[in-house]
Write a structure and sequence with these properties.
25 strands, 667 residues, Beta-galactosidase, Chain A, domain 5, alpha+beta, nine-stranded antiparallel beta sheet, globular
Length: 667
Amino acid sequence: MNPELMHFRPSAVPLVTSDPYLSCWSMVDRLYDDWPRHWTEAPNSLYGVIRVDGRAYRFLGGATTLQTTATQTALRVTPTRSIYSFEAGHVSLTVTFISPLLLDDLELLSRPVTYVTFDVTATDGGTHDVALYLDISGEWAVDKPYDAVTWRRLTHPDLHVGALRSVEQKALRRRGDDVRIDWGTLLLAAPSPTSELAIGRAEVIRRQFETTGQLPAADWEADAHAANCWGGPVIGACLRFADVGEAARSGFVLVGYDDEVSIEYFHQPLRAWWRRHAEASALSLLTDAARDYDSVSERCSQFDAELETWARAAGGEHYTRLVALAYRQAIAAHKLVEGPEGQPLFMSKENNSNGCIATVDVTYPSAPLFLIYNPDLVKGMLAPILDYCGTDAWVFPFAAHDLGTYPQANGQAYGRNRIEGQMPVEESGNVLILCAAIAHLEGSAEFAGKYWDLLTEWAEYLREKGFDPGDQLCTDDFAGRLARNANLSIKAILGLASYGKLAGMLGHADIASGYLDLARGFAAEWERLAGDGDHTRLTFDRENTWSLKYNLVWDKVLGFGLFSPEIARREVAYYLRMQNTYGVPLDSRRDYTKSDWVLWCAVLAESREDFEALVAPIYRYVHETQSRVPISDWHDTITGLRQNFKARSVVGGYFMKLLADKLAREE
């Protein structure tokens, strides 16, 4: 393997990832260089120490009084696991964070628990006494570190369980982007009798373990069990291994969060999918997770191996590392809840963009991952928007942008519902294309049929307004409004073809023929208007401009064949000439790009060599950027610095190559 790939340094490493609130990352090179952080960069402290023959070494968390650290020797990030290797004394330690986000198992996908596993082995042929300590702070349960938390133990027959909660429970009352949860219960659990647990003041409990190897005999009793997070309570677990030799010894703890209610959906509180049953509770959550540890660990290991093998065969080593890192990020920017009729709804948060919930032009780029593994999740993204737009609350003849600001999905927030603040062609085309993709994968247009009148209205809008768009926004709204946008026109054309495809699958042959013919005619006219020598234009009326035509990928993936293959050939060749150190710019106006769109354009390449040549600078960006956050999909192609955005679900778009590969195999 390329030495560079053996030492892949992600911009941030996923540790505990489940949903937009339960999302903790390491944003440094070594696990002990700083405290772990929520994706918003607020501290979500975890602290870990290994004692080998009475000497303490810190392996996780920022510097405290313990300056001695283990030596981190390796890091590997797979789709569901982050695996750290350390040396401490004459013992090797492997710490693995497993977030079992398996998309074909909604119960498991929804379960907000991460396994933190420990494997220890002697490296000198001798035997050693080893004790491991890990704690978690109340910062995870509050929006601000000065907010007060309370703590207690939960009684369980097979687990030691500690719980931390904010004193003032504000369920679903706070909305916004740079905010964290301030309701529900943070949980740390470890199997008994092979572990110990204590709840104490951070500096006291840590120092006692570091110096004596013991935990306090009693939990902290300060202030009637309430304190703020600055120097406040932590839940600490200890695992002991006597006579550690060459055979690996293992143990695990559970980090979980019971939010009790998750989303406000048109003023009705919805529960997480795992909590839809009356008997579900924090204790049942931990019981199920502990019971399934062996089987889930094996399933995650197998899934990771299969996905990485597939990605490697389809796109090479750089591509494999990118999709492995993107996997948990894409999923954890959503919350899976039970809808009002018992249906699964998969609600995204537009992280570090504006905090919107169920944003259509975030669903659109993220969809390839979910289309591959479970199209029902894409339905769960689209249905809330479609249901909303079918009510009297939505007055426009095109699709809405969002349903509000997370976690309140009570109606669109973007653009203040003024016509000039909308994305008419963008969102209508997005929904139609994704409905066609679902139908293509399932061999049935049943889902689209439920909303046929609405989709028909939007198709009519695209027929009238989409081919040569007026001055309006597209998903790249940070670049400003743009008239006669050639890439947006492609979306409209493919949206019309998608409607035609759906009509045919629903038995409307005449409608299908008419719309597919319309799309073909528009595609031919598009080629005439957009052509600019060896590439195509940013807008129909601006010579010597260009842009990434990422929407064109659906013509290939869904097999429409509307555009001449020569268009894609010329575009790919031009992008290869235009790319900088960290990728191809989004268009001729700026040096920044969107990495998800670059990877969509790479799928247009006919050769493996050209695909890898477009992917390599994006890998280099994630590996080298000094913007140490969960992948920012909007970055400067010269400096490698993020422009904005982080931890967004749109990196699910990195899976477009695999979606194309899947559909090509099935033809």
